[in-house]
Amino acid sequence: MKYTETFVDCALCGSLPKDHCSLLTTNILRKYWPGSDKCHVKICKRCGLVFVSPVLDPDGYNKFYKDLYHRKIKTEGLHDIPQKTKDFHSSIGKFIFNNICQSETDVSRLKALDVGCGYGHLTNIINEQFDVDITGIELSNKAADYCRSAYGINVLQVDVNNFPVEMLSRYDLVIASAVLEHTFNPKEFLLSVSRVLMHDGYLFVRVPGLDYLNTKFFSIRFDRIFKPIHTYYFTQNTLAALLSKCGFMVIAEKVVSKSNKSNQSEIHMLAQKRNNLKV
User: Fold this and answer.
1) Is 198 helix (H, G, I), strand (E, B) or coil?
2) How many alpha carbons fall within 13 Å on the CB side of residue 69?
């Protein structure tokens, strides 16, 4: 089934499609993608945010992530995580809690929410190594069931853009690791996440970065980087600006180099909730 696709306004500055320039177009490699076979990447002339437009409607994205995104992954053997991956997840936890510790006297038993926890590998590391009362949110039945059975993590399957009332203002920390770039609208996502945080709660965001992308055309596979499952592409500046617009102040950030052909880095940011929204 093919879903409707539509052009979008800029999520950062609100500019209309007429203010967006075409950056490049790539072929879509995913067999089960329910949209068109081309990925059209745009850049906003006003603020520099990079994103896919047109995009699937929200129903199309929800269907894809609930039923198709994890379709090829076999859960057998998923528990055998390479030590390198465990160390990487542990480094994320240290980045978060070392920086929180600078402003908090006691971080034990913080209530945390891992949004888009997938199979729970990072969630479990945070739970085991940092003594945090952590809950996961995952749309996919397959991934959520695995996280519950393999790690004993409490996983909720709720609409992130419409949290139940009982979840509001309840959490000290929200983790969004490799999630924001998948959202239909990152500003709406961040504003929704803000509602479940305590008044001075923390948000950790991890996204692929464009700052140090190797742009030599003969050494890069653009269709491996710019793809429809990543609807938004951030630099440190555009990510920090979006967080600020949604009422967060960045208190720590770092760029993590990745050993891949494109030399694409990751941006890790820890932000604290503030009341001075700039929406």
Assistant:
1) strand
2) 21
- pLDDT tens column, 193-208: 999 999 999 999 999 9
Q: What is the C-alpha separation between 44 and 179, in angstroms, rounded?
A: 21
What single-letter amino acid sits at 235?
T
Q: Each residue of 119-134: pLDDT tens digit?
A: 999 999 999 998 899 9
| Strand-pair category, 5-6 with 38-44 | unpaired
b/e for 14-24, b at 16 or more Cβ within 10 A? Answer: ebeeeebeeee
- pLDDT tens digits, one per residue of 7-28: 999 999 999 999 999 998 988 7
Joined together, the tokens standing for residue 133 give 């009362």
Q: Which residue has the tokens 């929180």?
A: 100
Angle between helices 83-101 and 121-130 (to 10 degrees): 50
Name, in order, each residue with C-beta under 8 angstroms of 235's C-beta and a sequence gap of 6 or more.
48, 209, 210, 211, 267
Between 3 and 235, where is the model more confident?
235
Question: Does residue 100 have a pLDDT over 50?
Answer: yes
Is 208 in a helix, a strand, or coil? strand
* Nearest residue to 126 via CA among 152, 176, 92, 167: 92
Question: Rounded to the nearest 5°, which phi and psi values hold at 101?
Answer: -60, -25
Rg, the chain, Cα only? 18
Give me 99's structure tokens: 């920086």
Count of beta carbons in the 10 Å neighbourhood of residue 103: 11
Report how far residue 75's alpha carbon sits from residue 86's, in angstroms, rounded to the nearest whole number: 18
The stretch 46-51 carries a mean pLDDT of 96
Nearest Cα to 201, choosing from 132, 249, 136?
A: 249
Sign of CA dihedral 249, 254, 257, 262: positive
Place of tokens 């949290």: 163
The structure's pTM equals 0.90
